[in-house]
Amino acid sequence: MGQSAARLGPAAGRRGRLRWAVCPVPRAGFAFAVLCALTALLAGFGHRRGWWSFGTGLEILQWSVYGALAAGALSLVGVVLAPLGRAWGTLSWALLGLVLATATVWIPWSHIDHARVLPMIHDITTDPADPPQFVAVLPLRSDAPDSAVYGGPAVAALQARAYPGVRPARYRAGVPQVFRRALAVARAMDWRIVTAEPAQGRIEATATSFWFGFKDDIVVRIRATPYGTRVDLRSESRVGHGDLGANARRIEAFLARLHRRMAGGAPPAAT
Description:
CATH topology of the largest domain: Alpha-D-Glucose-1,6-Bisphosphate, Chain A, domain 4
Strand content: 5-15%
CATH architecture of the largest domain: 2-Layer Sandwich
Largest sheet: 6 strands, antiparallel
Number of strands: 6
Distance between the termini: 94 Å
Number of domains: 2
Radius of gyration: 27 Å
Helix content: 40-55%
Number of helices: 7
CATH class of the largest domain: Alpha Beta
Order of helices and strands: HHHHEHEHEEEEH
């Protein structure tokens, strides 16, 4: 029995040393992954609060992703080493670090990958031939890099191929009724209403993104036609060559909500 204990002694000592060496790795990977995730979040919120420019925010986000790749690799090493060192208590830290690092990399990468198939346009309208014009929001765009002047047939052609579902809507109801419900939809979508002019059938508003605080301006034009009332929209970003499809999704979401409020109305229809 004494000999058995003597034989087990060195083995137990080696396992103890291995466990001691393994334990810091999963925890370090998890801590690094948390740091990178928080830095990625801060990249956007810092820009939203005006602490740094858009370019600086993107650079911070880029380095956060690089760091998350390293954190993921470190956590993966921890996943492998924890069973070898029988440090089962640290395996959960390694797995959490791997999941968090993957999310930190995947979320920005998915947006970049999505942008590759979308045209580099940031001004979307249901009426490219006669786009609704901004009036009240123009002073708010005075220092915006993107012009409020519509890009013309070239932009319209790109939009038609990428977003064929962006079309005007027509309703049998009169302009006042459609205007009231359109304004209610705009408020329900948490847009900041800049102006609402019932006599002109025009609503102008601004939508702000959650993360980076990007501001997109919207104008809703409501006109009487021989067949009822027509609703057109235009949504344009203040910064950026592309918009990752945000403006088109916003227009489609608005018209879908408006249609649900307009009992008996026709769905969005081509001109």
